[in-house]
Amino acid sequence: MRDSATHHRRTIRLPYFDYTTSAAYFVTLVTRDRAALFGHIIDDVMHVNSIGEIIREEWVRSSDVRPELELGEFVVMPNHLHGIAIFRGDMLAYDAPVLAPAGAHSRAPLRRPPRSLGSFISGFKATTTRRLRMLGLADDQPIFQRNYFERIIRNEREFDRIREYIADNPRRWSEDPENSNSPT
């Protein structure tokens, strides 16, 4: 175990950017140890298993419990999830209606700004992990890596390129260095 006094996580967030503002993000969440927990690619098509189906269901459900969130293209891969998360400016005011948590789905701890990318990702990870454990599909180890990758989508051309990248991800899986069966 690392000494918390000496271990410092390097942030990958854009300095001075307000992650509670209206914006579109390209997000990647990776499983702990890059384990292929969510299913398999067969003939360039992703086939989710029961864990992957829960990941997919909770990702979709996130926009139901977060009215400020709109989801774009996404794909559940064997060991990661790629998705576009769009925070709508008309719903970001702090007096915007907030839906009560449904079931195990809830917002992240208050140390993250509410209605922010960090709050969404933290809530999504916590909800999926809790649900998988309740169903006996996960042990007490984390499902996801501690951090996540995000990129602020800056224009329509980049948005279209990322949508294509996400949609094409299963077809390119055999070339992915994160794929344990990859020739590279």
Descriptive labels:
alpha+beta; Alpha-Beta Plaits; 4-stranded antiparallel sheet; two-stranded antiparallel ribbon; 6 strands; about 25% helix; disordered N terminus
Write a structural description.
There is one protein chain. By secondary structure, this protein is of the alpha+beta class. The protein has a single domain, classed as Alpha-Beta Plaits, CATH 3.30.70.1290. The protein is 26% helix and 20% strand. It has three helices and six strands, in the order βββαββαβα. It has helices spanning 50-65, 117-134, 156-168, and strands at 23-30, 39-42, 45-48, 69-76, 80-87, 149-153. The strands form two sheets. Strands 4-5-1-6 form a four-stranded antiparallel β-sheet, sandwiched between helices. A two-stranded antiparallel ribbon has the order 2-3. Helix 1 (50-65) packs across helix 2. The protein starts with 22 loop residues before the first strand and ends in a 16-residue tail after the last helix. Mean pLDDT is 80; it is low at 1-5 and 91-110.
Write the layout of secondary structure elements.
Blueprint (H helix, E strand, L loop, with lengths): L22 E8 L8 E4 L2 E4 L1 H16 L3 E8 L3 E8 L29 H18 L14 E5 L2 H13 L16
Helix pairs in contact: 1-2
